[in-house]
Amino acid sequence: MKSYAPEHIRNIALVSHQGAGKTTLAEAVLFKTGAIGRMGSVDEGTSNLDYHQSEIEHKTSIFTAIGSCEYEETKFNLVDTPGFEDFRGEAIAALSVVESAMVSVRADGGVEVGTEAVWQLVEDNDLPAIIVVTKMDKEHANFEQVYAQIRERLSAKAIPVQLPIGEGENFHGLVDVALGKAFLYDASGKATEAEIPEEMREAYEEAREELFNAAAEHDDALVEKFLEEGELSYEEITRGIQIGVRDRTFFPVCAVSTTGGGVGMRPLLHCIKEYLPASNVRETLTGLKGEELVELKTGTEAPTLARVFKISIEKDAGEFSLMRCYAGSVEAGSEIQNVSQEKTERVSQLFSLEGKNREKIERITAGDLGAAVKLKDTHCGDTLGARGVDATLPKIAYPVPNSRVTLRPAKDGDDDKVAQGLHRLHEEDPTFLVHNDPETHEMVLEGMGEMHFEIILERLARRYSVEVTR
To answer: Which run of H or E residues covers position 294?
Structure first.
């Protein structure tokens, strides 16, 4: 994949309640843009993003994965995160390095507890977002009901930019509110322009007025024009939506089905490209120099600045440090300062990650994501920079463990082996802790819940061939 300027990159974290179709949505985006030749399936264990053995066995996302694709001269970096509460730390780290989020809400389930939790993370990070109502083809899909829940439980500033034509197995088209046109889809996903159904005319007029008001809100001239003429050009609407999304004065709501040809997928790609902010939207970042807050410049001309947001240790490939470059570029074959650890790292090789596939690259440019291999002293959350950069980005606010279990090696004498294995796993997952109880001298594992413990111990046994009882 070619290198893109920051203004042509969109970094998006995909977040949702477990089972809302977030990973399948990411797969559909990758497939529609030609990044992958066929859509994988989470349930069948063929997903391009849920590719770790634990994810295949449990049929759910457990680790953050990156999928990149190109659409109309724009690069999308999709950062797919787990929806399960025990792995919320992955979403927190991912949201710290993107400019926007895509929040999936299932049409047959509505807003769930996990949806509200991840929406709060979006709010905490002050991120623009698109809300995608997924699984519109399911039996009990109900867009109107789900949209009401979104307005009530997530944000009253959510506004539909599309209205679905039909629901469940009859979902076969969309009304584009900004364009004022309807599109009907065949089984292959090909769309044909059509008249807006008469029974949807009233709903369309209401959505149109709300969208136009939101688009004109930031420009007095547009407000006046809309009030006088009742119309705005498509370009004026688009510009107004871009500003509103960037400033979080409203959140577009889309509707899709990823099965068959993918009803609504092309309009969603358009929304990502046109409405979500580019990777250069922030000209400065707040850093820490000791106790002092300082400004750090971003962009291609500023000194190199990057953050490692995930460590992934993969069989036969070694340790990958996934990072976001904010300024300058990270170059293969160069040295870079780990400002957090006050160490110098040798960057031997760099890769772009496409789910389970990886492509060797020469550099990670400002605004983009990538991975370095075998950085010796680098950990999750560390700030990397050019020589002379003396401030760090704020630490990632991982959740504090809320559960604990005691562990005993299944075999006598394996205590050190267990401790060393858990230490290595902790490099990838900072949301658990392991220590010895000073009174009982037992090994204690602290984490986020039963599922979290299960995955940690499965990985310990699989990777390091050591088992424990608890």
So the answer is: strand 292-297
- Pairing outcome for strands 251-255 and 305-314: unpaired
Residue type, 406: T
Contact of 318 with 349, CB cutoff 8 Å: no
Question: Using CA of residue 271, residue 125, residue 12, residue 64, what is the dihedral sign?
Answer: negative
CA proximity to 461, closest of 413, 411, 398, 412: 411
3-state DSSP percent of the chain in helix, strand and coil, to 5? 30, 30, 40
* Fold: same for 6-275 and 284-385: no
3-class DSSP state of 267: helix
Place of tokens 């036969």: 316
Class of the CATH-defined domain 403-469? alpha beta
In which residue are the tokens 């009882």 written?
A: 469
CATH, range 284-385: 2.40.30.10
The predicted-structure confidence for 430-466, as pLDDT tens digits, reads as follows 999 999 988 888 999 999 999 999 999 999 999 999 9
User: Of the spans 45-49, 213-217, 258-262, which averages the highest pLDDT?
Assistant: 45-49
Q: Specify the amino acid at residue 101.
A: A
- Cα angle 73-299-125, degrees, rounded to a multiple of 5: 90
283/174 Cα distance (integer angstroms): 37
CB neighbours of 202 closer than 8 A, spacing ≥ 6? none
Q: How far is Cα 81 from Cα 102, in angstroms, rounded to an integer?
A: 11
Range in 90-104, 122-136, 208-222, 374-388 the model is least confident about: 208-222
Do the beta carbons of residue 285 and residue 139 sit within 8 Å?
no
CA angle 328, 334, 338 (to 5 degrees): 70
The full set of domain ranges for the chain reads 6-275, 284-385, 403-469
| Residue pLDDT, tens place only, 186-230 | 988 899 999 999 999 999 999 999 998 888 887 777 777 777 777
Topology of the domain covering 6-275: Rossmann fold (3.40.50)
- Cα(182)–Cα(420) distance, integer angstroms: 60
Nearest CA among 428, 397, 398, 394 for reference residue 307: 394
Measured CA to CA, the distance from residue 183 to residue 117 in angstroms comes to 34
Longest dimension (CA), the chain: 83
Q: What SS3 state is found at 444?
A: strand
- How far does CA 127 lie from the centroid of its chain? 11
- Amino acid at position 431, single letter: T
**Chain segment 159-188, per-residue pLDDT in tens:** 999 999 999 999 999 999 999 999 999 988
Residue 316 has pLDDT above 80, yes or no: no
* Cα within 13 Å of Cα(39), Cβ side: 18
Phi and psi at 313, nearest 5°, equal -100, 115
State the Cα–Cα distance between residues 101 and 47, nearest whole angstrom. Answer: 21
